[in-house]
Amino acid sequence: MTQPVPIRRDHRGEHLRTALFLAAHGVPTLPLWRGKRPFGNCRACKGNACGGRPNMKNAGACECASVCHAWAAATTDPRVLTSPAWASAWRQAAAVAYHPGEAGLTVVDLDDAAAVAWARETLPATRTVPTTRGEHWIYRGAMQSANAVRPGVDIKSLMSYARWLGPGTGTMITLPDAVPALAVKEPSRAWPAPHVVTVPAPVGGGECRHRTPAYLERGIAMAEQRITDAQSAIHRTVYRTFLVVLSTHGRCGCLTDTHITRLFAAAQAKGESPRHCTEAWSNARTRLGL
């Protein structure tokens, strides 16, 4: 008896067709790599050396044809979406994403059942899309994106991307005031300011290798850039960056309030609250036994 031939689904074709459909309706799209991450920049654009795409904060003259700059790569131009430069990305794509803010939308990303229950009690009903663990609530209107506005809740709109999971159900309504209010940062005075890291001198009277200020300055600058460049998993990136800084610079007493404030500022610019910054810093110190 002849065995049936397994049918292989052309995910590349499906993703591209979805992207073209969204683009035709004015929704800028881009392919996502495994783990729901954007594709990395090409060699010429690595580290934003090209100056960035025109729709980024640091607008420059980048005319790269590749899928670069994460959310800023999202486009409605079918010629770009089907171009040879994007073909490799579509072959490897695990999903399709879109830039909500550019489409005039805001997505309230509810990451778990508790967050969904909170939204149903607090926010006006709108179009909803089920996700792996929670729901996306989509409103008409754009705003500045913000992460972790409350447990399990992120806001994705301008300068952000959301995974396309289908059209959803329900009637989309105009962005209510309750959603932007969630992104209002708490006053910094409500949380204790970071303290200077004070630890014993190196065992055996060794000299601090950071006596040359350039070494420490380079480390802080690299940490700031790592946080700034993060496009997803912001909490984890901030914590791990703090961990790296402390493991390298935290045992000689070189870090000052100025250095720590710079790191906190970079994290808060990505949507972290002062409380989350303080907790991540404290957890990193505990992990290292400082």
From the helix content, strand content and strand pairing, which structural class follows?
alpha+beta
Query: Taking all residues together, what is the mean pLDDT?
Result: 81
Distance between the termini: 69 Å
Give the tally of β-strands.
Answer: 9
- Globular, elongated, flat, extended or rod-shaped: what is the shape? globular
Order of helices and strands: HEEHHEEHEEEEEHHHHH
Q: Biggest sheet, strands in spatial order?
A: 5-6-4-8-7
Largest sheet: 5 strands, antiparallel
Strand content: 5-15%
Helix content: 25-40%
> If helices are DSSP runs of H or I spanning 4 or more residues, what is the number of helices?
9
Low-confidence stretches: 1-10, 187-207
Any idea what the radius of gyration is?
A: 22 Å
At a glance:
With 290 residues, the protein is of the alpha+beta class.
Describe the structure.
- 36% of the residues lie in helices and 13% in strands.
- It contains 9 helices and 9 strands.
- It has helices at residues 11-24, 78-81, 84-92, 113-122, 178-182, 213-229, 234-249, 257-269, 274-288; strands at 29-33, 37-38, 95-98, 105-110, 127-130, 135-140, 146-150, 153-156, 162-163.
- It has a 5-stranded antiparallel β-sheet with strand order 5-6-4-8-7. Strands 2-1-3-9 form a 4-stranded antiparallel β-sheet.
- Helix 6 packs antiparallel against helix 7 (234-249), helix 6 (213-229) runs parallel beside helix 8 and helix 7 (234-249) packs across helix 9 (274-288).
- The longest helix has 17 residues, at 213-229.
- Residues 1-10 and 187-207 have low confidence and may be disordered.
